[in-house]
Amino acid sequence: MNWTTFDVERLFSVPLLDLLFRAQQVHREHHDPRAVQLSTLLSIKTGGCPEDCAYCPQSIRHDTGVEREALLSLEDVLARARAAREAGATRFCMGAAYRSPKAKDLARIVTMVREVRALGLETCATLGMLTPAQARELKDAGLDYYNHNLDTSAEFYGEIVTTRRYEDRLETLAAVRDAGIRVCCGGIIGMGESVHDRAALLATLANLPAPPDSVPINQLVAVPGTPLADAAPIDPFDVVRTIAVARIVLPRATLRLSAGREAMSDELQALCFLAGAGSIFYGERLLTTGNPGVDHDRALLARLGLDTARAGTLPRDAAA
């Protein structure tokens, strides 16, 4: 279906309980409703990013106290990957604060991808903008997913980022898709955007030549020192509503409950799973911000009857 922003915006106006019912029907049609996939995210190169993304503590333009750290060694990355695997994660995501990676750094990251994959983990990377040739290098190394979020609507984007164009992000997504790497792409809510902007973002994702396989829904973490440090807290039900609408317009995608989860109650997270979330980041940190503890997450998933062992690498086909 070709979703227009108007169509998606109308979904946002559906009464919440009716919307949840519809989203759960779609979720059960395409996914195992008891499955949840666990990913661990590691910052392999921290700080020093020249971009001015208003939400990001790793920008050199914001005084957030984040120390610049060089690219980690292969040994350090593999040690963290093994620990993630032993804790139950099935996907290991490597994030680096680049506008775009330099050739010498990408060569080292390619080796990391090969070695992490050899541990039996799915691999994901987020390294900023990529050229088609760089995307092919990562594909040849065995990279399973590449994360490159659109963040928000094209109309609101200039309020959040001025150092790159929305089209730059779309070009990177095209390079990743053309290389045969699965796309992980979502956005952030709570940055001052309107419901129209949230609808436009989801419509853009749904209408890509191939919709993303994985869609992170991030809640803004208002970090002191960033331009969005004083952003008003988002209504928790708006998070649930956004996930439910995303489930309806992106029925086969795995929706990832991402940044901001540390501030969510267990009850709110349960509603997010009901709305169609099927994956979480697992571990005490997300790049430079906090995340719920592993023991707490395991207890919550057990209380909800969600099973990490049931999670596959792709959504269940409705005909299966």
Question: In total, how many beta strands?
Answer: 11
Helix/strand order = HHEHEHEHEHHEEHEHEHEEEH
Mean pLDDT: 90
Strand-residue proportion: 15-25%
Oligomer: single chain
Strand count, sense and closure of the main sheet? 9 strands, parallel
Taken from the alpha-carbon principal axes, the silhouette is: globular
- Distance, first to last CA: 21 Å
Query: Radius of gyration, rounded?
Result: 18 Å
Number of helices: 11
Show unreliable segments.
313-320
Q: For the largest sheet, list the strands in their spatial order.
A: 5-4-3-2-1-9-8-7-6
Based on secondary structure, the structural category is alpha/beta
**Helix content, binned percent:** 40-55%
Report on this structure.
The protein has helices at residues 5-12, 16-30, 74-87, 103-118, 132-141, 154-157, 166-179, 195-206, 236-249, 266-275, 294-304; strands spanning 37-45, 91-96, 122-126, 145-147, 182-184, 187-189, 214-219, 254-257, 277-281, 285-286, 289-290. By secondary structure, the protein is α/β, with parallel strands linked by helices. The strands form two sheets. The protein has a nine-stranded parallel sheet, sandwiched between helices. Helix 2 (16-30) crosses helix 9, helix 4 packs parallel to helix 5 and helix 9 (236-249) packs parallel to helix 10.
What labels describe this entry?
320 residues; alpha/beta; nine-stranded parallel beta sheet; two-stranded antiparallel sheet; 11 helices; 40% helix; 15% strand; disordered C terminus
